[in-house]
Design brief:
Elements (H helix, E strand, L loop, with lengths): L1 H27 L4 E4 L11 E7 L6 H7 L3 E9 L3 E10 L4 E4 L3 E16 L2 E2 L5 E2 L1 H4 L7 E5 L2 E2 L3 H15 L1 E8 L2 E8 L1 E3 L4 E3 L2 E17 L4 E4 L15 E15 L8 E6 L5 E4 L2 E3 L2 E8 L10 E2 L9 E8 L5 E11 L9 E5 L2 H7 L10 E4 L2 E10 L2 E9 H8 L10
Length: 417
């Protein structure tokens, strides 16, 4: 009899455990800290209950939207409503609605200072080649800010200032920047009979231009985000510090199809009669940002749509929007294959192109597609940023919340620990 009661009791315990096991797994799956909208707060039922405590108060969406700041809520999960099991903090993000991009844009960027992109020998009167700038310690990637205390903004400014310094004193005092540190270099100038000028043996550039894709436009503040990744100098691969710049509409007239080991490319030209234009205020790891004027229209979306925060994005099907010909935005199928949370760079998701039409035309993700918005379940989740060199059908995407923080649409403070 005793053995029978023991078996029955054990069976009841087993049934109870099996009954609550899914809820235990759900509970274990809730992270210690996450960012999401108010509608997506995790819920548990049955034997578990949750107590939500805001600090200081749970803000309304209107208040959070006006400040751009999230609200931290403390959630305590209890067994039978009595015994604490797990505590977590949830950052409830403000309600933000954006007009998805997809438009092809022409980007023109002017750097702060003039970047050194190469070095060359200077042949003097004696016929011997010398490298004055290299010998003085100037390196590729350095940014020249001043020559003989004169601010320089273009390659011609640098050439003229060096020639004047050579005629005046035989050397040039150059203020340059490297990795955020400024140094003063004295470089002996060499008279070049071929050009009839004093030179120091440098190739320099201060501008960058190219084609990309607009990601979003925020209609209240007129702020925009594009590209989803930083603009680096083509020769030095160094980030370009922005002095000023602009974005306008561009038209795509050719596609170079991507293949293994050779990323493809959109070939386009700037549109003179553009329907929108913007400045470039920031060049960051998550893209370029500024203020947009004019009409930003996406035919697939008649009005602004909500954003999906990091914790709400899921693996599965999604859509991207981009231009392959002219200025016409098209919709294509992709798969979000992997989500890499808590990364602050522009490689937050692995995106796989599954649309047969896009694969036929481009081979997958190509240059110029960077910034193409990713939409899942009617919400904007991020943008295409990079292609896998050895697999053009796959690439990376950036979370939209990272772009919104860089754009100043939401607060970038109080990051998750």
């Amino acid at each position: 009899m005793k053995t029978r009661r023991t078996v029955i009791f054990g069976s009841l315990l087993l049934c109870t455990f099996l009954g609550i096991q899914p809820m235990i797994q759900q509970l274990a799956g809730i992270p210690e800290f996450k960012e999401q909208s108010n509608e997506a707060l995790p819920q548990l039922t049955g034997l578990f209950s949750q107590v939500v405590k805001a600090e200081p108060n749970v803000s309304t969406n209107a208040v959070m939207a006006s400040t751009g700041k999230p609200e931290v809520i403390h959630v305590s999960y209890k067994l039978f409503g009595l015994f604490p099991i797990k505590n977590t903090e949830i950052k409830v993000m403000p309600e933000v609605k954006l007009i998805p991009g997809g438009q092809s844009i022409g980007v023109s960027l002017q750097a702060k200072g003039v970047m050194v992109v190469g070095q060359a020998a200077v042949t003097g009167k004696d016929g011997k080649p010398v490298y004055p700038a290299k010998e003085a310690g100037i390196e590729i990637g350095d940014v020249i800010l001043k020559v003989d205390n004169q601010e320089v903004k273009t390659d011609q400014d640098v050439a003229n200032a060096i020639n004047q310094a050579g005629m005046k004193q035989g050397y040039a005092e150059i203020l340059c920047q490297r990795n955020g540190q400024t140094t003063q270099k004295r470089i002996n100038t060499v008279y070049c009979p071929e050009t009839n000028r004093y030179r120091v043996g440098l190739y320099v550039r201060n501008e960058a231009a190219g084609v990309g894709t607009l990601t979003f436009y925020e209609p209240q503040s007129h702020k925009y985000g594009a590209l989803g990744h930083v603009i680096n100098d083509a020769d030095t691969n160094q980030k370009i510090e922005v002095l000023n710049g602009s974005v306008i509409a561009s038209s795509i007239y050719a596609i170079e199809k991507g293949r293994r080991g050779h990323p493809g490319e959109k070939v386009g030209s700037f549109v003179s009669q553009t329907s929108f234009s913007g400045n470039i205020e920031k060049n960051s790891v998550s893209g370029i940002f500024g203020i947009m004027q004019g009409q930003v229209l996406n035919p697939y979306f008649k009005e602004a749509i909500p954003v999906s925060w990091e914790a709400e994005i899921k693996e599965g099907p999604a859509k991207i929007y981009t231009v392959l010909e002219g200025e016409t935005i098209e919709e294509f199928d992709v798969q979000i294959e992997r989500i890499m949370q808590n990364r602050i760079d522009s490689k937050n998701m692995v995106i796989h192109v599954t649309d047969p039409r896009l694969l036929e035309k481009t081979g997958g993700i190509i240059q110029g597609m960077s910034g193409s918005p990713i939409i899942q379940d009617g919400k904007i989740v991020g943008a295409i940023t990079h292609v896998f060199v050895n697999d053009a059908t796959r690439g990376y995407g950036v979370f939209i919340q990272n772009m919104l923080k860089e754009a100043g649409v939401i607060s970038g403070q109080d990051e998750a620990a």
